[in-house]
Amino acid sequence: MTDNRTKQPRVFYGWYILIASFFILFVSGGSRFVIGVMMKPMEAEFDWSRGAISAAVFLNFAIYALAVLLTGKFYDRWGPKWVLAGTTLLYSLGCLLISLTNSYWQFLLSYGVLVALGLGGITVPLFGSIISNWFERWRGLAISLALAGSSVGQFVFIPIFSKMIDGSGWRTTNQWIAGITFVINFILIFAVLRGDPDNFGLQAYGKKQEEEHGDHGEAARQLKMATSLTRDLTLWEAMRTPSLWLFAVVMFVCGGGDFLLTTHFVAMVTDYGLSNELSSSMFAWSGLLGVAGVLIAGPASDAIGNRIPIAITFVLRLILFMMVIKYKGAIPFWIYGLGLGFTLSITAVLNATLMGYMYGVTHLGFISGFITTIHMIGGGLWSYLGGLVFDKTDNYDVVFYLSAATAALAIVCMLLVKEKRHIPRETHLPRKAQAC
Fold first, then answer.
1. Which H or E run includes 30?
2. What is the DSSP letter of 205?
């Protein structure tokens, strides 16, 4: 009997999955950061403090962090289609309700809760898991190409939405975001997206097929035994390894640096007299530099592993934070925005590849979701801290000092992570199997 999985289609279907993932992230990546452009217009209309708006951002990130954890679990159990459809609906509804906001509690509900629940499915974390299932060979590159959609979307949409806010207002802009997201995502989700390739008689790209006949000899039998024993770890089992917690610290710090930029960059630059158009352009270009970052990080992880590229990103961040404390103005802001933008999505790519390498892909959605939860808590806390510090000191220097210190901590933690395949504690491989 012929195994259907040996009959691969002429064009591997995983490439269609990659393209669909790119465009879903293109839309969500371009729209989710519009809050940074909306901050000052909302301050002016409602007379809210920057700290109050940042508190709503903190709530958004906290809910988003929990949503990522849940959607990762739902994805592991039911696959991507209905998870993505449900979260798209929530995101679009939240954006629509933002346009109707007339009070702070309405903003907390629409942006802080509904938009956050939607983002839990249609942003980077889940797509790292989806692509990981479809690609074994070139996994890092494939994830990088898909996740680059978020950075390209930021580059394309931020200037457009900034002009729309200046011309038509932030309410109309959010109505457009709701409509565009709903239409594009639903078409791609139901026309293209699929779950595990095994469910469709396919294999992941580059996965070697097992021979079904012949004597493999003692070494092959020992290797097969070792493979069966080194099963994929659950989240609970992964949490019993020090490396997961070291990486969690790294991702907490990473989230802080990421969302300090995306939440406060435009407001900070205009505080120093630069135009809204110029600051939005800086922010957009930081997204495009993110494409370069992920396209370098993915192949680098395939070649030299994940630990060193991640550590290097925090060395760069440490330098950037110290620079922006001392120097303010157009050129330093360009350097800060482009430099931090370059690192913005690197850990998003390497989170999935590192967790898949260390713990396997069976529970990757849940494990990556847990790590992303930590990342978003750090992002929410730093976004709120930025607004709070600004309200107290009229600048962001204190939070930049804290960011520099935690970047140094992240470098140390990343270098201590053991980048190897972890096995359950109760597993004891035979000596011959270990030698294989």
1. helix 14-32
2. B
Quick one: pLDDT at residue 106? 95
**How many angstroms separate the CA atoms of 129 and 351, rounded?**
10
Residue 253 within a domain: yes
Annotate 83-122 with three-state secondary structure.
HHHHHHHHHHHHHHHHCCCCCHHHHHHHHHHHHHHHHHHH
pLDDT at 199: 66
Closest CA to 158 of 260, 338, 283: 283
Residue 108, amino acid: L
Give the closest residue to 28 by CA, choosing from 110, 121, 113, 96. Answer: 121
CA distance to 52, 311, 322, 378, 399, per residue, from 386 (Å): 11, 24, 16, 12, 6
Number of domains in the chain: 1
Distances (CA, A) of 327 to 279, 323, 385: 16, 6, 21
Residues 204-258: tens digit of each pLDDT = 666 664 334 344 444 444 434 444 456 788 888 888 899 999 999 999 999 999 9
Determine, yes or no, domain membership for 210: no
pLDDT at 167 over 80: yes
The token pair that represents 94 in the structure block: 């939240």
Note down the domain range covering 159.
10-197+228-422
Q: What is the 3-state secondary structure (H, E, C) of 64-77?
A: HHHHHHHHHHHHHH
144 within some domain: yes
**Tens digit of each residue's pLDDT (9 = 90 or more) over 401-428:** 999 999 999 999 999 998 888 787 665 4
In whole angstroms, give the CA distance from residue 156 to residue 120.
22
Whole-Å CA distances, 54 to 39, 82, 326? 9, 31, 24
Q: Where are the alpha helices (DSSP H) in 327-345?
A: 330-343
CATH of the domain at 94: 1.20.1250.20
- Residue 193's closest CA among 16, 9, 10? 16
Q: Does residue 429 fall inside a structural domain? A: no
The rounded distance, in Å, linking the Cα atoms of 250 and 313 is 11
State whether the Cα torsion 313-382-124-364 is positive or negative: positive
Tokens 């934070």 -> residue: 321
Amino acid identity for residue 358 in this structure: M
Sign of CA dihedral 179, 182, 185, 186: negative
> DSSP secondary-structure letter at 327?
-
Distances, alpha carbon 389 to alpha carbons 273, 382, 401, 414, in Å: 19, 10, 12, 28
> What is the rounded CA–CA span in Å between residue 267 and residue 34?
12
Instruction: Name the residue type at position 77.
Output: R
